[in-house]
From TrEMBL:
This is Radical SAM core domain-containing protein. One of its GO terms (molecular function) is catalytic activity. The keyword Iron-sulfur applies. The lineage of its organism: Eukaryota, Sar, Alveolata, Dinophyceae, Suessiales. It comes from Symbiodinium pilosum (Dinoflagellate). Gene3D superfamilies: 3.80.30.30. The keyword Iron-sulfur applies.
């Protein structure tokens, strides 16, 4: 495995298109369909340039690491609407009542993923379902990427991925220091890579009931302030909306005053384990959840590990209306926040932000 003509040049130079190495034969093109959606011409890098970067990384890492990257899940994951997930760790110790992670992992201290930054970058580039520089990257699918146990690995992954220019999004409840936020902002500007942060705040009044082990809301608002001051796009992640929790206006006002530019108003997912925890809450209107389940033909006793979306549309409409009145960009999906920050629609043909984004 070798990258002919690349000696003395960094993978950053290659990825950013400034390398002088001879490029592979032209005529290679991206597939017409990726992840079930038609492709477009928004990719900044050609397949030939990406092929060159792959060869360079293979030579840099060696056969063992290249094989590890090729066999890793990142090389074959199907992107979701929000993008392709980079998994920097597994599990979470915050143990929020509504969290869906426990359906896959126990609520324990998370552990970092084994792949190095360059290995996960190579694994991503092997993935035929994802187009570098066009398709989005997300962190936070099965962990909090800025949990103290995972922050170092997450920053390593972000540093490896930013030269691609693919819009990056992460979601967190953790406190992120100002130096770390400033580093993220610097990488975003240096590599012209949009980074969108989602900071989860579902309630102010009922945190001890719903999120007893998570960092405080004030810690999260400090994170919003620091990320915003660093020049990043920051949305408050109001996911899930909690039936019975009526302090959403206070959440939106706190988000606005802390520097957030928008809010993601997301739905609740319910499985057997999640429902059992929510029943123990003093905050959640469990009867409202029961009615919505029954409207779907599901009795609460019939719930399994399969997660069911609870779409409380009247509540969602009220939250989005209040957010807009405060001057916050209100969206329904995480990928819409990433699209807004990047000023580029997501892969979905019916991306809700296509008509909002000004070109």
């Amino acid at each position: 495995m070798s990258c002919r003509g690349c000696r003395g040049q960094s993978e950053i130079e290659i990825a950013s298109g400034t390398a002088s190495a001879a490029k592979p034969t032209s005529g290679i093109s991206w597939p017409k369909v990726v992840g079930g959606e038609l492709t477009d011409d928004l990719a900044a890098f050609s397949p030939a340039e990406v092929s060159q970067l792959v060869e360079f990384l293979e030579a840099k890492l060696g056969t063992h690491s290249a094989r590890k990257a090729y066999r890793d899940q990142h090389a074959r994951r199907q992107p979701i609407a929000c993008g392709v997930q980079i998994i920097s760790g597994h599990s979470c110790s915050y143990a929020c009542r509504y969290c869906y992670i426990q359906d896959w992992y126990p609520f324990i201290e998370p552990t970092p993923t084994e792949l190095s930054g360059h290995e996960v970058l190579l694994s991503l580039l092997y993935n035929p379902n994802w187009i570098p520089s066009r398709d989005f990257i997300i962190l936070g699918d099965v962990c909090d990427p800025f949990h103290p146990n995972l922050e170092v690995r997450t920053m390593e992954y972000v540093r490896a991925a930013v030269p691609l220019g693919s819009p990056i999004q992460f979601s967190t409840k953790s406190g992120i220091s100002r130096p770390t936020c400033e580093q993220l902002g610097q990488w975003s500007r240096t590599f012209q890579c949009p980074i969108n942060a989602l900071v989860t705040i579902t309630t102010l009044k009922h945190v001890e009931d719903m999120e007893p082990s998570a960092p405080s809301v004030e810690t999260r608002l400090d994170t919003v302030r620091a990320l915003s001051a660093a020049g990043l796009s920051v949305f408050v992640f109001m996911r899930p909306l909690l039936p019975g929790s009526c302090d959403y206006l206070e959440v939106l006002q706190a988000a606005k005053s802390s520097g957030a530019e928008g809010v993601v108003v997301g739905s609740l997912r319910v499985s057997r384990k999640i429902y059992r925890r929510l029943r123990q809450s003093k905050t959640v209107d469990i009867e409202s959840i029961d009615r919505q389940l029954q409207d779907k033909g599901i009795e609460p006793s019939q719930l399994t590990e399969e997660q069911v979306d609870i779409q409380d549309e009247p509540l969602r409409a009220a939250v989005m209306s209040q957010a807009s009145a405060l001057g916050l960009q209100a969206v329904r999906r995480a990928c819409c926040a990433n699209a807004f920050g990047a000023q580029m629609p997501c892969r979905k043909a019916r991306c809700l932000m296509r008509e909002v984004i000004s070109w």
